[in-house]
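quick one
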Amino acid sequence: MQKTKSKTASKSRGASRAQSSSRSSNAGNVKETSSSALQEFFVDQLKDIYWAEKHLTKALPKMQKAATTEELKDALEDHLAVTEDQVTQLEKVFEMLGKKAQAKKCEAMEGLTKEGSSIIDETEKGTLTRDVGLIMAAQKVEHYEIATYGSLVQLAKTLQLSDIANILEGILNEEKEADKTLTEVAENNINIEASSEDSEEEEETAKDEETE
Ligand code: ZN
Ligand code: FE
Ligand code: FE
Ligand code: FE
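structure w/ zinc ion:
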């Protein structure tokens, strides 16, 4: 009984092998279909990041207003201007594809900006802790964008859309630059905090030495 089963199994396997070899002559067709599906997927992801950038033009001013240090306020203000320009650049990309610029809600960016809002709610106004939190939230946003544009550049290259790949690569570099700036601001803030803590300790040590 078992033998018969395995014989049947090997027979059907042989049959499917024969089928797949006859199908392989259709490989060109299969490729064409998946290429236009890929293009559709690409446009869909463009709609996602277009929504995300437009959303950021509303979220960044809130974060800027809530920030404590002038340095962070400036960094967020600068990136707002860059973001507004990115919206325009994405509109150009849609135009190059012969498509109407259309936004599709990005759940990830909504979540990331919600985290930014709760950091504002949970930290005290005028503190460095708030800035540390805002920088962390902003860097999560930048990293999401870096991941997105990195993939979009690769996709555009695969689809042989080199002009579009160049535009997206330009935006990718702006996001990397924003991330770098935020790291620098964070390092400076930590330094300020660390130096003020040091001086308190020094004062205490000085007092201790006086009493001794
Ligand atoms: Zn997105
Ligand atoms: Fe952006
Ligand atoms: Fe998304
Ligand atoms: Fe950005």
